[in-house]
């Protein structure tokens, strides 16, 4: 019975059989990837360079942009290369890297969105305590906890997945390597061995979800008590982008992993995986910049500085 140590490569799911469609997919993915690079790169540069944005809210947004870039860079470049060069092959090391890094960045992003909800809760419900509760040390610790939880979750799943023997071939029914698809190749009762890792993942996901819901319940209660319409508008401008990003992330990721097996199919799995792994990193910068005047001003100032330096 062959096990995983004897495999040197895996075969990913092909997007199309015809060369024209493969090139079309490459162009589409390239456009999405460049949009993600540009949008998140602008946020990273603007927050880093503009001292007015050196606040907890933008520190967490900087971390989110970095996670978005990392997440989409784990899967999309390989998908683009596969479409361009008409190949399904991914090396064992490349597959292992995707299995490790994708859940790492995905879990860390979910944790970071939870931390950002806490930041908004403190800013709106306890504004007088904002400086003491969200000092630079506390912000660094919360960001480190988000990255750390993602890394721990990824290591648990990766170690368990790659310790299993495989006897179902090496074809992965996905455009990148992820834990559920690798487990399908196992010839042992993989899900029993996954209990510990799944329990940790479920506890983390459920805890973050409950915290997100409770935070926004308190925020909306505070908003309803505000006498000023201008104050309510300011709060909504602050919270709606984050709420939109959370809704997009949670709905697509939860549907991908919790959908009933009866409606599962390779084509549906492919579409859903694209929705939660590729779309959010590309559209998150747009969502955050639409109603954020400070961020728009910082990006505009950044463009002016670049243009002036180029001119002179």
TrEMBL record:
Keyword terms, alphabetized: Cell membrane, G-protein coupled receptor, Membrane, Olfaction, Receptor, Sensory transduction, Transducer, Transmembrane, Transmembrane helix
This protein's name: Olfactory receptor
GO molecular function, one term: olfactory receptor activity
One Gene Ontology term, aspect cellular component: plasma membrane
Membrane topology value: Multi-pass membrane protein
Main subcellular location: membrane
Function: Odorant receptor.
Natural source organism: Aythya fuligula (Tufted duck)
Domain G-protein coupled receptors family 1 profile: 39-288
Gene3D superfamilies according to UniProt: Rhodopsin 7-helix transmembrane proteins (1.20.1070.10)
Transmembrane residue ranges: 26-49, 56-76, 96-118, 138-156, 198-223, 235-258, 270-288
Family: Belongs to the G-protein coupled receptor 1 family.
Signal sequence coordinates: none
Places the protein is found: Cell membrane
InterPro entries according to UniProt: GPCR_Rhodpsn (IPR000276), GPCR_Rhodpsn_7TM (IPR017452), Olfact_rcpt (IPR000725), Olfactory_GPCR (IPR050516)
Recorded superkingdom: Eukaryota
């Amino acid at each position: 019975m062959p096990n995983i140590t004897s495999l040197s490569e895996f075969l990913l799911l092909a997007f199309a059989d015809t060369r024209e469609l493969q090139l079309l997919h490459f162009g589409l993915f390239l456009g999405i990837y460049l949009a993600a690079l540009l949008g998140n790169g602008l946020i990273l540069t603007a927050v880093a360079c503009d001292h007015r944005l050196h606040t907890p809210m933008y520190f967490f947004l900087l971390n989110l942009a970095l996670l978005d870039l990392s997440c989409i860079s784990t899967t999309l470049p390989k998908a683009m290369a596969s479409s361009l060069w008409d190949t399904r092959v991914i090396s064992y090391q490349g597959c292992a890297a995707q299995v490790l890094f994708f859940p790492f960045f995905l879990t860390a992003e979910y944790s970071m969105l939870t931390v950002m909800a806490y930041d908004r809760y403190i800013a709106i419900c306890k504004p007088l305590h904002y400086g003491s509760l969200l000092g630079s040390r506390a912000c660094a610790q919360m960001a480190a906890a988000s990255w750390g939880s993602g890394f721990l979750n990824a290591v648990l799943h990766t170690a368990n997945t790659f310790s299993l023997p495989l006897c179902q071939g090496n074809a992965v029914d996905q455009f990148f390597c992820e834990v559920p698809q690798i487990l399908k190749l196992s010839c042992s009762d993989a899900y029993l061995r996954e209990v510990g890792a799944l329990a940790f993942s479920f506890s983390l996901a459920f805890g973050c979800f409950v915290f997100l819901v409770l935070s926004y319940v308190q925020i909306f209660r505070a908003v309803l008590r505000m006498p000023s319409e201008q104050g309510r508008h300011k709060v909504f401008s602050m919270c709606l982008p984050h709420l939109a990003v959370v809704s997009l992330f949670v709905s697509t990721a939860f549907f991908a992993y919790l959908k009933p097996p009866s409606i599962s199919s390779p084509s549906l799995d492919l579409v859903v995986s694209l929705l939660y792994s590729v779309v959010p990193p590309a559209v998150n910068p747009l969502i955050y910049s639409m109603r954020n005047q400070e961020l728009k001003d910082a990006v505009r100032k950044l463009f002016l500085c670049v243009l002036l330096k180029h001119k002179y």
